[in-house]
Amino acid sequence: QLQLVESGGGSVQPGGSLRLSCTASGVALDDYGVGWFRQAPGKEREGVSCINNNDGSTYYTDSVKGRFTIIGDNARRTVYLQMDSLRPEDTGTYYCAAVSSVFLDGPYSTSNPCRDSDFDPFGRWGQGTQVTVSS
After folding, report:
1. Strands (DSSP E) along 1-135, which ranges?
2. Do 55 and 33 meet the contact criterion of CB atoms below 8 Å apart?
3. What are the backbone dihedrals phi and psi of residue 47, each rounded to the nearest 5 degrees, phi first?
4. DSSP code of 8?
5. What's the whole-number mean pLDDT along residues 51-62?
6. What share of the chain has pLDDT > 70, as a percent?
7. Distance separating alpha carbons of residues 4 and 61, to the nearest angstrom
8. Residues 74/81, Cβ–Cβ less than 8 Å
9. Are strands 129-133 and 10-12 parallel, antiparallel or unpaired?
10. pLDDT per residue over 68-104, tens digit each?
11. Any idea what the Cα angle at residue 68 is, between residues 77 and 27, rounded to 5°?
12. Which has the closest alpha carbon to 110: 54, 47, 67?
């Protein structure tokens, strides 16, 4: 049974960096899509970045382009989100999710972004890790 655990969150000043980890147990993620989502208090959950491990395609929401990088490890057990030049508006609880790529509609792209609905009802979600960016 696939389970996901996020780690790496914390408090950082604006301009700082964090590296989040999403580690899978039970199933390797070779043919999975993996996404990072975040939710700030009182706001809707939004997609941040996704990677399709089947074809290597990636997606970034406009607000994080050039600052965040999604990276998979060689064992296909962990997906990282490297976050640089952090801003206060990046604050929130970050969740990772994974779903078999057979449920994805082709490679990720600007015209084919990842959506949280891609990971429901067949995907799995982690418990989240808190990121706080403040002076």
Report:
1. 3-7, 10-12, 18-25, 32-39, 46-52, 58-60, 68-72, 78-83, 92-100, 124-125, 129-133
2. no
3. -75, 135
4. -
5. 94
6. 100
7. 22
8. no
9. parallel
10. 999 998 888 999 999 999 999 999 999 999 999 999 9
11. 15
12. 47
Token digits for 112?
């084919």
HEC sequence for 10-28: EEECCCCCEEEEEEEECCC
Torsion of CA 114, 39, 98, 76, to 10 degrees: 100
Positive or negative: CA dihedral 114, 120, 126, 130: positive
Q: 83: which 2 tokens?
A: 């976050």
- 51, 78, 113 from 132: Cα distances, Å: 24, 22, 26
User: Which of the four pLDDT bands, split at 50, 70 and 90, describes residue 107?
Assistant: very high
- With the CA atoms of 121, 122, 123 and 125 taken in that order, what torsion angle do they form, in degrees rounded to the nearest 10? 40
124/98 Cα distance (integer angstroms): 5
List, in sequence order, every residue forming a beta bridge with 92; answer none if it has no partner.
131
Q: Note the residue count of the chain.
A: 135
Residue type, 6: E
